[in-house]
Design brief:
The chain has about 200 residues and is of the alpha+beta class. About 45% of the residues lie in helices and about 15% in strands.
Length: about 200
Amino acid sequence: MIGYLEGKLLKLDEDRILLLTHQVGYEILLPVVVMKTIRQKAIGDEISLYIYYHQTERQPKPVLIGFNSETEKDFFQQFIGVGDIGPLKAAKALTLPIPDIARAIESRDVVALSRLKGIGDRTAQKIVAALCGRIERFVSVQGAGPEEAFSDASAPVYKVLVEQLGHRPADARNMIAQALKRNSAISTPEELFDEVYRGETP
């Protein structure tokens, strides 16, 4: 079974890449949240991925799903333990950073979860029922500073809130979480900052 790969980026498609490792090209499916980081790379760059290897009697052709860290892969394995969520559906559903999804689960935010690709209200409720109380460790990325637990858009906003505006770290994290809950389509620090203070305005 393949659990980790390092190699050269040969091809970049919408939801997968081709990775050259020891003269063998591996096609690897990437969740949206992982693809966002890989798109910053150029063809020919060296990359490394933790791999979830999926093969069953019903699906004899192996599928490799890639992650930037063991933490992302661990969360994915918890996520696919929910009824009606298989590996391919889960890979498509991970459109937000893992800490944001974990935070929505722990706060029982069915509305936010139902916005994930392919996840409706019923499945969102199943996710909460199955995982709430079991994934708190994913709300903050292990081994990272508080600002690194957020998405690319969230980290600089967190830094400004704490270092320049004097908010307590816990309050800053909550403000960002609430803003992302109100608008999951946010993709830039500017949009997130505007949403944070839109929520603070009476």
